[in-house]
Amino acid sequence: MPFFRSSHPLRRRGAAVALVLALAGGAQAHLAQAQPVTAQRQMAATANPLATEVALRVLREGGSAVDAAIAGQMVLAVVEPQASGLGGGSLLLVWDAARRDLAYYEGLASAPAGLPQDYAHDAQGQPIPAEALARSGRVVGVPGTLRTLALAHARHGRLPWPRLFQEAIALARDGFALPRYLHAVLRAQPGLAGKPGFGLYFGADGQPLPVGSRVSNPALAATLAQVATDGAEVFYRGPIAQHMVAAVAAHPLPGTLSLRDLAEYRPVQRRPVCLGVFRVTLCSAAPPAAGGIAVLQQLFLLEQAGIQAHPPGSLEAAHLFLEASRLTEADRRRFLGDPDQVPVPEAGLLEASYLRRRAALMDPARAMPQVSPGQPTGRKAEAAPSDPLALPATTHLSILDADGNAVSFTTTLNLNFGAEIVVDGVVLNNGVTNFATRPVVQGQVVANAAAPGKRPITTMAPSMAFAEDGRLRLILGAGGGARIIDSVAQTALGVLGWGLDVRSAIEQPRMGAQNRAEELEKGTAAEALAPGLLALGHAPKIAVMNAAVQAIAVQPAPMAGWADPHRDGSAAGD
Which residues pair with 393 in a beta bridge? Predict the structure, then answer.
């Protein structure tokens, strides 16, 4: 019997910016003796201490988990503008403890009606250089975050909408201390200094302001104040919408975003995907998100392969983890797309018999020489592999309120600073780059090809785990492009499979194969595994891996939370 409402079915068992290496420094050490933050009633974990503080303040005022998530996101839009904000897209899981209901709100940035299917090539059929394309008006999708949050607030909010913007408005207006991670991103993107709307982060010498410098964004403060007063619709109709459309059209590589696109955008409530793994039911974001299915698949494969018998950090565990990652990457790139526009074999990809066949391909003593997509029930025979650009930005918030309601909320601009277009203080996304850059492969249209109004696939994977008695066990998610999947899977494995505390699980040296290569995290103990993995037939490379997990382990009491030291995050609770 499902332990929550049948409207959300339970499937039982059956960027790539290379940031300065200093960023990967002290934050990467696995602190086996360090303890996570604990609390008794409520907790917030976000990618910035200011956002965590505001989210917890809202909870203390009697706000719901959704209220706290909205307030936290608005602060992140100010202090972490490279990763998320009003101009982006979001995925939101909301757990209603009283009703035992898990809702999933999908608000990804969608394709404008005028977007060509082959958006990555010019009128002569020549490929547009990737960096020029990714930072252009051509790839701005219709933002979904604000309408998604407004819908969630209408259904799950308690405090008035304007209250949730107060601290963000004050920070944007009066200033905030430039965070360490934002400074590192600015150093990695020095060309921003000469672009409109980015001068506030740079000094007269064209260099990023030092960490801790006071930064204010009056234009964003004014926009936030208008949205707080007049509601989310003011962003999609009227002067702000007109300014967005004009900015996209005026770019040297213009896009097709229109007033009609903005007026007609709607978030979608979908069913989450769920699967029994490691004695819990793990639920995550369904397609067009690819990350949720990939995380569920990966954990099921690892349990079938007996990874619990091998300690964390061991060569044997790393081998199995990489093999499972390779298998799930092949499936997600082949089969996943927007289910409103293309057939997606969602049920087949999570079918226990199918996953057991996939797990049987994993040899404990040797890496697979080649990995291909499987043959799940309901597959679309003509589908071909997807080839979107790499997207390393994004952020995540995990929230639990005093009534046991929870939010797992992943939100993004895609690349750091999205399309590098700023309108009224708002950074616009480059969400179109999540569509396949080769829409036709071997004469067949790929599942993730661009189309008017379509939502692209994403590796975002906001997730929650439920114990066998139905109690909420774990809230987690991550920002970090394709590495989100492995980071969420590795953290969930640590907590659910190995019994690690949430901090130790998050701070494991990272590895994975979702980023089109087998990767081991630079500057960590994972590097030492490279020779052994080579001997097993792997081809690992050493990489800076800056995906950041925010998680709360709700059970057993007291609850424990942690925010990934790869970025500036914190967890706090009462």
Answer: none
